[in-house]
Amino acid sequence: MTHSLDPKGPRASARVLGTLHAEGTSGVVRLQDRYDTGPVDLWDALTDPARLARWLGEVHGDLRVGGEFEAHFLASGWEGTGRVEECDPPHRLRVSTRSPDQPDGILEVTLTPDGDGTVLVLEDRGVPLEQVAAYGAGDQIHLEDLASYLAGGGRCEPRSRWQQLHGLYERLPVTPADGA
């Protein structure tokens, strides 16, 4: 998969990056996309607080394995804390998350070289099953903001984009997580 270079912009498309899954009583959002940059640069965009501030939000704290951090994501408004559970640069990152108004979760990112680009897989685990489509739309906005940042663009207007994507994610089946 590659991001659209449609003259209307990548957000003009109705492309859905994710799949939705059930894992016990909670949901899992799995998104995959290909970025036109190498794994080292993509890893840096995902883990350097200065770069994160340009597309995702503010992240402060200890970003080493076992370290804890605080974060505020701009597009979704998510605020909470996290703990770095696994970090294997530039291939795999796993963090646990906590927020006062949402269930605890796990975010896993895997990067795989693909020619002159990199395939990113994001899994967002522990989301409320009844809200898995909403989380899918929100997670996709973050990945689209990452693609726009890497191409020299800015973040989207999250409310209208979320409404567009949420309608599409609501139509997706929720399948067992075994296939995720």
TrEMBL record:
Coiled coil: none annotated. Pfam families: AHSA1. It comes from the Bacteria. InterPro entries: ASHA1/2-like_C, START-like_dom_sf. SUPFAM superfamilies: Bet v1-like. Gene3D superfamilies: 3.30.530.20. Residues 39-150 form the Activator of Hsp90 ATPase homologue 1/2-like C-terminal domain. Belongs to the AHA1 family. This is Uncharacterized protein YndB with AHSA1/START domain. It comes from Terracoccus luteus.
